[in-house]
Amino acid sequence: MRVSQLFLPTLREVPAEAEVVSHQLLLRAGFIRKAAAGVYTFLPLAWRVIKKIEQIIREEMDRQGGQEIMMPIIQPAELWQESGRWDVYGPELFRLKDRHGRDFCLGPTHEEIVTALVRQEVNSYRQLPQLLYQIQNKYRDERRPRFGLLRGREFIMKDLYSFDRDEAGLEISYQKMYEAYTRVFTRCGLKFRPVEADSGAIGGNDTHEFMVLADSGEALVVFCPDESCGYAANVERAISPVQGGVAREETPQPLKTMDTPGMHTVEQVTGYLGVDARRLIKTILYQTEKGVVAALVRGDREVNEVKLQKVLDVLRLELANAATVKRITGAAVGYAGPVGLQDVWLVADEEVMLLVNAVTGANRDDAHLANVNPGRDFTPQVVADIRKVRAGDPCPKCGAPLKETRGIEVGQIFKLGDKYSRVLGATYLDEHGQSRTMIMGCYGIGVTRTMAAAVEQNHDENGIIWPVSIAPFHVVVVPVNHRDEQQMGLAEEVYRELEANGIEVVLDDRPERVGVKFKDADLVGYPMRITVGNQAVQTGELEVRYRASGETRLVPRERITGHVR
Ligand code: ATP
Ligand code: MG
Ligand code: MG
Ligand code: MG
């Protein structure tokens, strides 16, 4: 490809709206252009990078037995009503109507569609397991689309869904994906860390996030410096190594088990939430330094999150005037009863937590406690232990002091269990002819976010430094003086030879000063630059410069192809 013909509109200035480096550089280097907030066009170089990332993902999914399909972006509301998510997904769901007034949404994720497909087509244990995936645009009406490709409203995701006969099968599928993800991000040339992301079981492995390490990352990660231990967790999720509070033996005022309207037994709650409420009853009370109280209900994250989203919208209104609440980052729902402020505690900013109601959850099954005062009724030990894990805290696995780093979530793997297969009725007949519910997992990678994360991690003040495996082109050939026929002739020759040998190369044939071409080459981030100047013409030695190290090397003309390959 000749740079004079390449659709590569570079910019000299940093666009004002771009806050993070990847956004700035992808705009400046001519990779992306904005169409609307969180919606981008990918120009030729970006598309080449995306296709490379996709290809790496494909190969690793296929290696684990994944089969690629393509599901519709437009999804009928009926399926979402069946799963219960139509009402609870919230404003992030792009909804639309057809000309007959029927409701649809643009897929933010595909559990409903894929589960409906599999329930229809898979009937026997012999047909399981299945690992189905696609690479496709996803739509999420993010509250704050920002940071360019890192948080878009239209973005490309690889999503794979596993269907197994039982939990043991799911465990195998999950491990396969864990390995596949590790290989994908390694092959993309990224420094990353898989972290525990489950708010429930500490040390649990029901879900992991894959974090690309970068200072601009939205997520805070704690990790054990001892490589052989390997513990790492998202701080948002890793609340504490302690599994719940312990009520004091003697309290000034004995705690009463409450039995108020709106409070329900474990069995009732199980029915209401559709998950084993016992898993949710890990209620913790604590008090932050600012003296505000919160209760967390641990357990099935998605069920909670779905409910929480709904609750949060109510709370935002209710608490709009509460001066202490800076930013609501999450909430917890008391496991009892329908959503209402009575049952809701709010977890705001790390420091700012607010108790909405003085009635609080229990740390015992089947019990609610009235008039609880955390400082008084719970041991100080518990209060201390329940705060978020921080750098310097002992590793929950081995005790070594934890370290902290920031990360960008580029992928997540998740054991869904029977959450969707049960409500949508995805069953199969086992070897004894018994009907059983399939056990599912879901596994996402943000393709476009991965591209941006690669830039966050690999750049300098001059521009992008693409990892070779995902670079849009590998080599740029730069003639120093475009008026010099000998230089242009030699550059052309080198370019053609490299291209004929299957090397991804561009020739900067523009009538520009060499300084401009060098600047653009650095900005775009080609891993190698070959300079063709007078010296090259006279001595037959070409200067090869490596973008990552800045090193240069003289390579004889006749050895150039072998050298850059
Ligand atoms: P986040 O916590 O950043 O909002 P998520 O947990 O909601 O992400 P998942 O539902 O786990 O995202 O989706 C799988 C992957 O899709 C994420 O790991 C991320 O790489 C990518 N992704 C999610 N939301 C976006 C977005 N708005 N823009 C770009 N990529 C995204
Ligand atoms: Mg999200
Ligand atoms: Mg996330
Ligand atoms: Mg996620």
TrEMBL record:
GO terms for biological process: prolyl-tRNA aminoacylation. InterPro entries: aa-tRNA-synt_IIb, aa-tRNA-synth_II, aa-tRNA-synth_II/BPL/LPL, Anticodon-bd, Anticodon-bd_dom_sf, Pro-tRNA-ligase_IIa, Pro-tRNA-synth_IIa_bac-type, Pro-tRNA-Synthase_IIa_type1. One of its GO terms (cellular component) is cytosol. It is an enzyme of class 6 (ligase). It is found in: Cytoplasm. Consists of three domains: the N-terminal catalytic domain, the editing domain and the C-terminal anticodon-binding domain. This is Proline--tRNA ligase. It comes from Desulfofundulus thermosubterraneus DSM 16057. The gene is proS.
